[in-house]
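To illustrate the input format used throughout this study, we show a single complete record. The first block contains the structure-token representation of the backbone; no residue identities are included at this stage. The design step must infer an amino acid for every position from geometry alone.
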């Protein structure tokens, strides 16, 4: 067997691609289960768009880097509890939980907004509060663009009601 072969007789790159596809299928099924557990109808949970991203830890720090999203929308990194959202030429990094009672937020692509499944608080794609039980905007993380990657500081959470200026400036233009 050559250096690129494995025990199944396929090339290493092909096996890696197959493994990623299987992982993504399993992750989608798991996410559907989570949405059903949160009270969504099965059809609604299956139809919900879910984009996932996996951050890369920046050496010697608590920051994580992500690729720049190619289009408007939202991706989540459940491991680091971060939402990366691109909207009207800007990219934001949000805490994954609703600021009201820390329930995992979801992206409603058909409505172009975030919503908390627990109390139905609604937010614009830039994190601004629209309506619901929450009393403030989504929490942002400091974000910067370095060498073509987004770098998000996981240790710093910016709450709009405590530091409005920092919250307003926590984005990068793309």
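Output of the design step:
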């Amino acid at each position: 067997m050559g250096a690129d072969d494995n025990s199944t007789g396929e090339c290493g790159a092909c096996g890696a691609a197959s493994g990623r596809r299987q992982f993504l299928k399993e992750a989608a099924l798991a996410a559907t289960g989570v949405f059903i557990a949160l009270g969504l109808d099965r059809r609604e949970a299956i139809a919900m768009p879910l984009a996932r991203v996996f951050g890369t830890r920046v050496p010697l720090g608590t920051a994580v880097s992500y690729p720049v999203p190619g289009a408007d929308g939202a991706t989540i990194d459940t491991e680091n509890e971060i939402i990366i959202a691109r909207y009207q030429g800007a990219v934001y990094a949000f805490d994954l939980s609703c600021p009201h009672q820390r329930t995992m937020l979801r992206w409603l692509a058909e409505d172009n907004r975030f919503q908390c499944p627990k109390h139905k608080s609604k937010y614009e794609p830039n994190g601004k509060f629209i309506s619901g039980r929450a009393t403030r905007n989504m929490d942002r993380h400091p974000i910067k663009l370095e060498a073509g990657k987004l770098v998000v500081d996981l240790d710093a959470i910016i709450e709009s009601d405590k530091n409005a200026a920092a919250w307003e400036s926590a984005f990068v233009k793309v």
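Structural context for interpreting the output: The CA atoms of residues 160 and 167 lie 5 Å apart. Residues 1-11, 35-50 have pLDDT under 50 and may be disordered.
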